[in-house]
Amino acid sequence: MSQTIGRTRLAYSRAWHHVSLASPTTPSLGRLASRIAILLMGKHKPIWDPSTDCGDYVVATGCNDVLVTGKKKEQKMYYKRTTRPGVMKSLSMESMIRKWGGGEVLKRAVRGMLPKNRLRDKRLERLKVFEGEAHPYRTNLMRFEGRIRQVEPEVKTELLKQTSV
């Protein structure tokens, strides 16, 4: 029996998921980051394999309303090492949101949830974050019965037109 059953081009196609942080039912930062990491890795697909990149795109909007519990906005620190020995810069979450926006906080949280291998940067590139609700990827997202789905390309109909002529 062939081992390539189910590993077709359609199985590896990438869907576009939309996450709105402005909705009242949005979970806290860590829970949301772990769900986004699962979508970026492709663990929700039956063809998931740790060595292949079969994840989907995720568009996160409303990142200025990122939800954190407790006093994390004031107490959580992000550290950055410089090339000089003994020099380390620190930045609180509150100042990071003011300086770079909530999207950077979400990206760093998702980056920590992804496996530390050579696929991490490629997977993180598929996470698109926006401070407001407007984003340029609306053509990739489509609604059917209240759910967002991917727009399928019109490749098959073009091939049928060429063969019938």
Short descriptors:
globular, 165 residues, single chain, 6 helices, two-stranded antiparallel sheet, 19% strand, 7 strands, alpha/beta, three-stranded parallel sheet
Structure summary:
This protein is an alpha/beta fold and 165 residues long. It has helices spanning 29-41, 72-75, 93-100, 102-113, 120-125, 155-164; strands spanning 16-20, 57-61, 77-81, 88-92, 127-129, 141-144, 147-150. It contains six helices and seven strands; from the N terminus they run E-H-E-H-E-E-H-H-H-E-E-E-H.
Commentary on this structure:
With 165 residues, the chain is an alpha/beta fold. It is 32% helix and 19% strand. The chain has 6 helices and 7 strands. It has a 3-stranded parallel β-sheet with strand order 1-2-5. Strands 3-4 form a two-stranded antiparallel sheet. Strands 6-7 form a two-stranded antiparallel ribbon. Strand 3 and strand 4 (88-92) form a beta hairpin. Residues 150-160 have low confidence and may be disordered.
The helix fraction, in percent, is 25-40%
Backbone shape: globular
Low-confidence stretches: 150-160
- Main pleated sheet: 3 strands, parallel
Overall pLDDT metric: 84
N/C terminus separation? 39 Å
Going across the biggest sheet, name each strand in turn: 1-2-5
Count of alpha and pi helical runs: 6
| Radius of gyration based on Cα positions | 20 Å
Could you say which structural class the secondary elements and strand pairing correspond to?
Answer: alpha/beta
Order of helices and strands: EHEHEEHHHEEEH
**Fraction in beta strands:** 15-25%
Oligomer: single chain
Secondary structure tally: strands: 7
